[in-house]
UniProtKB/TrEMBL annotation:
It comes from Paenibacillus marchantiophytorum. This is DUF1871 family protein. The lineage of its organism: Bacteria, Bacillati, Bacillota, Bacilli, Bacillales. It comes from the Bacteria. InterPro entries: Apc36109-like_dom_sf.
């Protein structure tokens, strides 16, 4: 998948998976995770692959184990306008 970073940022920030933005964190709080997801998404072949990647990035970077179904929902949101 070749993800558009602006749209990926919009989806992740709207989701606010760790609740940091709602707590007053700056809009660029997830930039490191978003860049890593965008870079590694080139090897994803499906929404399930992307959801797994999202889960792994947040686990590795922040030590947070997100809900896997929530990650899958976001993966579908991210890819609904993408061509891969």
């Amino acid at each position: 998948m070749n993800l558009e970073i602006e749209y990926l940022t919009q989806v992740i920030n709207s989701w606010d998976p760790v609740g940091l933005l709602a707590g007053g964190a700056p809009d660029n709080e997830y930039d490191i995770e978003i860049r890593e997801i965008a870079q590694k998404s080139l090897s994803c072949n499906s929404e399930v692959d992307l959801a797994t990647l999202i889960w792994e990035v947040f686990k590795d970077r922040m030590g947070i184990k997100l809900n896997k179904l929530a990650c899958l929902k976001q993966a579908f949101e991210i890819t609904k306008n993408e061509k891969y």
